[in-house]
Design goal:
binds flavin mononucleotide
Length: 180
């Protein structure tokens, strides 16, 4: 069985999770930009950072799989909002549904991890986007604020790190179950 960890990371938090998972499992981790032929692998673990609900590099990468039925595919999203919040999980999953085929969505096992952000490091475009989202979130009545809105307001302009490598255990357990 050939396995690969593929990550989509802009600022490095997702890459850190991918490298740690690689260390724990001895499975090679590479950026989605460097994947040569995804069809060479039986087990694919995709770790992708969330950007406005989109999972960085995911649809582009998974689209290249010719036959998904003979593959084990695990997906982990990395975002700022609380990944244990039910509403947040539902929002992320609904968004994923729109980014991949229905067949693939039914087959993949999905996990949610928490990343971090350093505003001093963001690109101009990302800073501008976050400013707009922050202004919108801040003006919402409290009862309308989602976990994502709250995370955005609490962390706006700061450097925060919610990386927790122990949250990778759910993925290693899943891999053990499928005898990767
Ligand atoms: C422009 C922008 C949009 C983002 N959108 C989301 C989002 O929709 N949901 C979320 O939970 N986090 C969101 N985040 C936070 C990132 O997912 C988080 O910082 C993540 O750790 C980034 O991963 P990376 O360091 O691997 O790029 C956003 C961050 C930026 C800069």
């Amino acid at each position: 069985m050939k396995s690969i960890i593929i990550y989509g990371s802009q600022y490095g938090t997702t890459e850190m999770y991918a490298k740690e998972l690689s260390k724990k499992t001895n499975i090679q981790a590479i950026s989605f930009n460097d994947v040569k032929d995804i069809n060479n692998y039986d087990t694919i673990i995709y770790l992708g950072a969330l950007y406005a609900g989109g999972v960085l590099g995911m649809s582009k990468t998974l689209k290249k799989i010719n036959n998904i039925t003979d593959k084990k595919i695990i997906l982990a999203t990395i975002g700022l909002a609380d990944p244990t919040d039910e509403e947040n999980i539902n929002n992320i999953r609904n968004s994923i549904k729109g980014q991949i085929s229905e067949e693939l969505f039914k087959q993949i096992k999905i996990f949610h991890l928490r990343g971090g952000i350093d505003y001093s490091n963001l690109s101009f475009i990302h800073k501008t986007m976050m400013n707009l989202v922050y202004k919108h979130a801040k003006n919402l009545p409290d009862e309308k604020k989602t976990a994502e809105d709250k995370a955005m307001i609490d962390t706006y302009g700061k450097k925060v790190d919610f990386i927790d490598f122990s949250s990778l255990d759910s993925i290693t357990d899943e891999l053990t179950k499928c005898n990767y």
